[in-house]
Amino acid sequence: MSKIVSFHKLKLTNNISDKHGFTILNSMHKYQPRFHIARTDSIVDLGWCPFRTFIFKETEFIAVTAY
Fold first, then answer.
1. Which tens digit of pLDDT belongs to each residue from 9-45?
2. Quick one: pLDDT band at residue 66, thresholds 50, 70, 90?
3. Within its chain, how far is the Cα of 31 from the centroid?
4. Element (H, E) at 34
5. Residue spans per domain, the chain
6. Which of 24, 55, 22 shows the shortest CA–CA distance to 37?
7. Are 12 and 29 spatial neighbours (Cβ–Cβ below 8 Å)?
8. DSSP 16-32
9. In 10 A of CB 31, how many CB atoms?
10. Are strands 12-13 and 61-62 parallel, antiparallel or unpaired?
11. Which of 14, 17, 35, 43 has a 20 to 30 A CA-CA distance from 65?
């Protein structure tokens, strides 16, 4: 497996009334993204398939109200 993983469509917001499907974060909270890689032939089996979780310390961030 050697495909590029892209998050160009991931949108973050602190607006709790967001209607666009953005991921809602709390300002001034620290976040640590985790990447879960699962091996499965069907999304239905996702809860029971073997998986690995990866954490990259470099991706830790604190959400702010405005930049």
1. 888 888 888 888 898 999 999 999 999 888 888 888 8
2. confident
3. 10
4. strand 34-38
5. 29-67
6. 55
7. no
8. TT--S-PEE--TT-EE-
9. 14
10. unpaired
11. 35
